[in-house]
Amino acid sequence: MSLIKIEGSGVTGRKYWRSLDQLAATPEFKTWVEREFSEDAAGMLTGKSRRTVLKLMAASFGLAGLTACRRPEANILPMAKGIEDYIPGQAYYYATAMPFGGTVSGLLVETHDGRPTKIEGNPDHPNSLGAASALAQASVLNLYDPDRARQVTAGGQPSSWDAFERFATDHFGKAGDGSSIRFLSERVTSPSLDAVRKHALGKWPKAQWVEYEAVNDDQAIEGAQLAFGKALRAHPQYDKARIIVALDADFIGVDSHTVLPIKQYSKGRRIEGPDANLNRLYAVESNYTLTGAAADHRLRMRGGDVQAFARDLAAAVGAAPALNVLSDGKQAKFLKAIVKDLKAHPGKSLVVAGPRQPAAVHALAHLINSALGNLGETVTFTEVAGWTPCVAAMKQLAAEIGRGEVQTLVILGGNPIYTAAADVDLKKVPTMIALGLDEDETASAAKWHLPEAHYLESWSDGRCGDGTASIIQPMIEPLFNGKTAAEVLALISDYKDQRGFDIVRNYWALPEKTWRESLHNGVIAGTKAPEVKAAADVRRLPAAASTAAPGIEVGFFPSAALYDGRYANNGWMQEAPDPMTKLVWGNAALLSPATARQLGVADGDFLAITRNGATLEIPAQIQPGHADNSISLSLGYGRSKCGRVGRNVGFNSGALRASESFWYASGADVKTTGRKFTLASTQHHHSMEGRPIVREATLAEYKTNPKFAGEMVETPELFSLYGEHKYDHGYQWGMAIDLTSCIGCNACMLACQAENNIPVVGKDQVLRGREMHWIRMDRYYTGDENDPQVVYQGVPCMQCENAPCENVCPVAATVHSPEGLNDMAYNRCVGTRYCANNCPYKVRRFNFLNFHKDLPEIEKLVFNPDATVRMRGVMEKCNYCVQRIQEGKIKAKADGRRAVRDGEIQTACQQTCPADAIVFGDTLDPNSRVAKLKKQDRNYAMLAELNVRPRTTYLAKVRNPSPELG
Amino acid sequence: MADLALGQNVLNEVNPQLVLGHPTYHSITEQVAGIMEGKTPRRWFLAISFTSSITLMLGAMLTYLLVTGIGAWGNNRPVYWAWDITNFVFWIGIGHAGTLISAILFLFRQKWRTSINRSAEAMTLFAVACAGIFPLFHTGRPWRAYWLFPLPNLDLNLWQNFRSPLIWDVFAVSTYATVSAMFWFVGMVPDLATLRDRAKNKIRQVTFGVLSLGWRGSARHWRHYEMAYLILAGLSTPLVLSVHTIVSFDFATSVIPGWHTTIFPPYFVAGAIFSGFAMVMTLLIIARWTLHLENLITRKHLENMNKIMLATGSIVGYAYATEFFIAWYSGNPYERFTFLNRALGPYAWAYWTMITCNVVTPQLFWFKKLRTSIPVMFTLTIFINIGMWFERFVIIATSLHRDFLPSSWGYFRPTIVDILTLTGTFGLFLTLFLLFARFLPMIAMAEVKAVVSNQNHHAAEGAQ
User: Fold this and answer.
1) Which residues contact A679 (CB under 8 A, 6 or more apart)?
2) Is residue B454 pLDDT above 90, yes or no?
3) CB within 8 Å: A810 and B167
4) What is the largest CA-CA distance in chain B?
5) How far is CA A158 from CA A37, A448, A479, in A?
6) How close, in Å, is residue B335 to chain A by CA atoms?
7) Which of A463, A626, A654, B207 could potentially form a cystine with A592 if both were Cys, beta carbons 3.0 to 4.6 Å apart?
8) Using CA atoms, how far apart are residues A242 and A165, in angstroms rounded to an integer?
9) Which residues in chain B are closer than 8 Å to A831, comparing Cβ atoms?
């Protein structure tokens, strides 16, 4: 900066110039400088800039003692001088919340010198309980996305917030009663935004506000209206239910926006010994979902047929008049087993319907729960205030725009141009003002595009499902000068507070102490919504139950990786394998083996799916266990306007998604095109080949023979060529992974990726088998290809005591630590790859190329400084987060304690596992959780017969099938 | 020279004779030295410009690899080693023929070796040079590959892991290269002296003068020389067995099914000799034809070589069968799967190529007619060369691509860089061989003279 002559600042000395433009001080150059350094920087440099700087510095030192939460001042300066109580290099954790899909997830964010690097769940928050989903983990990478919207643009040309403010003052000054203004946002969960909204709608009484989510619970609320007569939100308590019936509800997968259902469900899958009492899960669904994989029994059925099944189920438990629509013998048998179980567990059972199912199915689920006495027991309700169905509202908005009734559309967040149903056209509106994170489809359609502040840069707030509010506090100054929705709305509507902090602070108006506590804890105490007692009424039910129309049904599912497309430019998520198909960098049309045969397609063959004049060409992927005559498409792919990562990756299934067939579309015409596509997948072989890899038994078998897991393989007495180490003192780290609880959600993979700076390699490299995940999620099918069961197995490094990788390394780059870790010294590695060849678990990963080569500077900010960034040509692998182990040991030492407490050190995967399936600790401490788990009968070491003595062991999977269906 | 115990009478009884026609000492010198003293033939220039451009391409490929990383090749997870180590084992194997011919056959008094040992030894060196490229360049960080040598280093406190077969490899291969070079050079000293004496220009005089180490052909020189040669032969002999044994340990000491097997050392040695002989044959047949050496490299030589190939090829075939039997007999499901997968899995094409070339092809040498037909043996040696390359590929890739956990199974496909690198090593090998043929005596003149029948001695002149 010092090289630029600063006008009016009285700087003397030699004048340096950077270009002829500067020398001439042309207006173009001045605007260029302003753009480059943003208005604030330019502002600071003019006039009394030095005094301003000093003032700000003084302010920052004054507030420096506040480390429990982020300081609320607007300008942040480099820490040229130290701040009291702040240790550079030390990680600090701040509580915040991530708004997502109409709710918020409570988070703790690890920051290093002001950079957020890692997301963890907030243990004090009611819907995260310490865990964070894969999507929440990956959100930190969105913050550093180099393709984020970096500046205000007007008509595609660079502009500034000042220019927008001038425009807004003029434009909205002429708005009158606001009859031609429409606001469009995602579901508003922020009370303070709601307050600004009330102010704005008070100013323009005829303006309207539309909330839209591409993945929404419209039908669930409508179902509650049908059953209870009012808009209620159901809160299933999976931990209290012994019998769970999921009707097309992937509640542990894509249908839940938080990790709470996994936390609750997995509580019912804990086994201490053979006297265990497991819950039982039945799943009825078309696509094979995580819930179907976890289920003890799964019935594959087209989405449109689920209603008939629900109707019969309701009739069978006496909740609704009989219709007897089911004809299939297998379905009837399945239903009979469910009914028997449900009737045997009144008040302890739960029937849930998924968001794709029509209101009638939700109402039926409520009626069944009511008849079984589950209301208030395994499912509770809270009021939903001012709710409108968003798909219908969006359609109405499009109609108004079509009629020319709307002059100004203000989009506050989201990417509705991409996510809206195919029949919704918003582009015709004369003035579109869009606030958004990315240079996306909406940005390119908007007249004014405003960069949005990422939630990690924002002051905001949000309520989670049960009403508990959290303050969203920023971890970092907005990187690209973005503003929050509330700030923009405040600017437009001239709200009393303009800055995000003031809006939130003054909305809550909490005493300073409570405010700080709320920031520190991540929740505002006492904000939980009261439970509503509701009584279901059968009379509002439609008389007949609908079934799927003949022909092939097309179902739309949120992508487990990209959700509704908002993670498209996120390399971590693009490379996170789909939990079921294991596809990365793209989506496919999933269909059953029988339907594939009928259509004559194999994996990768293009299908042309035509419906209502729209055609989608998408490669097919055969999904064992998928319902016949049904195709499942995941949303969020095929983004035409997107950053460098996600542009044109996959196929936009939204092209077929219309308002009237938002989740399931019938009557689609499906043809093959004869062309082929290469789909990238991280797993190519799906059978265990009869090998005892994932060991599984039913609860009954387990009770008869608790030692079944150990007996599945014959291990002779084993000898080692070299003398063996004893490992009998100090800490001896080990891990136990409970396959009964693990549901395969990928959260561990993403946690590991963030914690250990794992690179993204891209589709080409995945096709060559060079993905880098240190913990991978293996998925195997067992049984019949038409209706298989699925098992998951997370595979980190086994940290073998007799590690086969170690004795083959010529340069001793991988050696054993006295604490039993198989350490990797990256700077010693010359990259012979012999260790990886000799690893029977294939958990070692090699940097075949410089995977960090083209990384933009800003993306490097996400790196965890505690873990090395590996260079090309070296081997890497899981090390049980050795940096966390060291940190824990240092902390224990500094505290004057003698030993690390059990649970004090958590690996990243363990910390985030929503199912609490991963336990790490000292195996020599008999009271540690890991030692206790390893003592269980179910504990087994995979490939123990090789005498490698893995430290990571598995607890065999136990399912709890119904004796009726056994 | 090197006439250890065989009397001239024994030589005369050899039938057919090792040297055809009735060459005198002088005519042998003229014939062999004439190759490198005459005007460089046009076709040599044509040949070397072709092979050296391929060598240049090898340089380009290695530079690209160095700049990009191992990702330039098709290696992946789980096939972390693929063409790189395949090529390494292949070239090391090729080298074995030279050592076997010069050392073991020497100790066994196989006089027929005299006319082929020089070029076979040269081939050993060139093959080892080609092989040496791969352990170096296949490392992820070749600029750190020197860490494999036990060099004193204070900054790193780095010491090698002597449990690693790769370290054994480093010693085995470097010893092998050193001893082979010495053996080759020592054996060449009398011939170099001959060339020095015949040299007509200063450069040749000085060069050969230095290289011939002051050889004057005195009886004392001969005595020392023969003792040195004998000692070197004695040193080289265990190397023939040890190098490939140790190379096979790279695989045999691992836990991977298909690698973890005790049959590997003898099987690898037999395979190495098999492939080495095939390569010697391929080159000799060409050299013999282009340089008109039919009288020195006779059909007898070639037939003997074919017999050895028949023997080693049968051992290799037997080893393949034994592997299958043991896989079944062990009752180990992983072993069983690996071998079934070799024969029937995605790499079945490679496996059956190997079987055809290595097991079926050498069996044709049972027939004398085929064994003595030049076109037939030339074709068959090409097949064997291909087959032996595939053997290494099959062992490495098919064992790795499907090991214990089916979730991690994969498939290796070579990239263009893989293919051009392998091609490039052939370019390097042939270039070195062409340079050798042009500038050094391809046939051990002194040794051949020793097997020339008595009556021709008297016309002898030359170096002695």
Assistant:
1) A583, A586, A588, A603, A604, A619, A621
2) no
3) yes
4) 76
5) 13, 10, 17
6) 12
7) A626
8) 57
9) 70, 139-141
Domain contains B228? yes
Q: Determine phi and psi for A936, rounding to 5 degrees.
A: -65, 155
Contact A804 B166 (CB under 8 A): no
Amino acid at A743: I
Q: Give the three-state DSSP class for A96.
A: strand
- pLDDT 10s digits, B299-308: 888 898 899 9
Instruction: Give the SS3 label for residue A127.
Output: coil
- In 3-state terms, what secondary structure has residue A651? coil
**Could you give the CA distance from residue B272 to residue B269 in angstroms, rounded to a whole number?**
5
Q: In this structure, which amino acid lies at residue A309?
A: F
Distances (CA, A) of A958 to A154, A274, A708, A734: 59, 10, 11, 22
Residue B2 lies in a domain: no
- pLDDT tens-digit profile of B284-295? 898 888 888 887
Mean per-residue pLDDT for A137-145? 93
Domains of chain A: 153-215+388-468+476-504 (3.40.50.740), 232-383 (3.40.228.10), 552-681 (2.40.40.20)
Count CB neighbours of A78 within 10 A: 8
Q: Which helix (H) or strand (E) holds A885?
A: helix A882-894
**Residue B26: predicted pLDDT:** 81
Rounded to whole angstroms, the Cα distance separating A241 from A369 reads 11
**Position A302 pLDDT exceeds 80:** yes
Model confidence at A416: pLDDT above 50: yes
Instruction: Using CA coordinates, name the residue in chain A closest to B404.
Output: A840
Average predicted confidence (pLDDT) for chain B: 87
Residue B302: give the domain boundaries.
8-139+176-459
Query: How many angstroms separate the CA atoms of A415 and A437, rounded?
Result: 9
Given the DSSP bridges, would you call strands A153-154 and A349-353 parallel, antiparallel or unpaired? unpaired
Q: Taking residues B391-403, what's their average pLDDT?
A: 94
The beta-carbon neighbor of B166 closest among A832, A844, A872 is A832
Rounded to 10°, the helix A161-173/A485-493 angle is 50
Q: How confident is the model over A872-888, as pLDDT tens digits? A: 999 999 999 999 999 99
In a domain? residue B145:
no
Would you call B406 an interface residue with chain A, using a CB distance cutoff of 8 Å? yes
CB–CB of A952/A796 below 8 Å?
yes
Distance from CA of A955 to the nearest CA of B (A): 18
Is the reported ipTM for this assembly greater than 0.85?
yes
The residues in B 312-341 lying below 8 A from A, measured between CB atoms, are 333-334, 337
pLDDT at B345 over 70: yes
- How far apart are alpha carbons A163 and A152 in whole angstroms? 9
Calculate the alpha carbon distances from A437 to A193, A211, A470, A966, B440 in Å.
17, 18, 22, 51, 73
Find residues 238-257 of chain B whose CB sits inside 8 Å of chain A.
250, 253-256
Residue A191 Ramachandran class (φ > 0 left, ψ -120 to 50 alpha, else beta): alpha
Nearest-CA neighbor of A314 among A378, A370, A357, A359? A370
- Closest CA of chain B from A849, distance in Å: 5
B408 contacts in A (CB within 8 Å)? 841-842
Domain count, chain B: 1
Residue B158 lies in a domain: no
Smallest Cα distance from A422 to chain B, Å: 38
Amino acid found at A603:
D
Chain A residues with CB inside 8 Å of B136's CB?
none
Please list the alpha-helical segments (H only) found in A403-556: 416-419, 441-445, 485-493, 500-508, 512-521
What pLDDT, on a 0 to 100 scale, did the predictor assign at position B461?
Answer: 43
The span from the CA of B190 to the CA of B229, in Å, is: 12
**A and B: number of Cβ contacts within 8 A:** 167
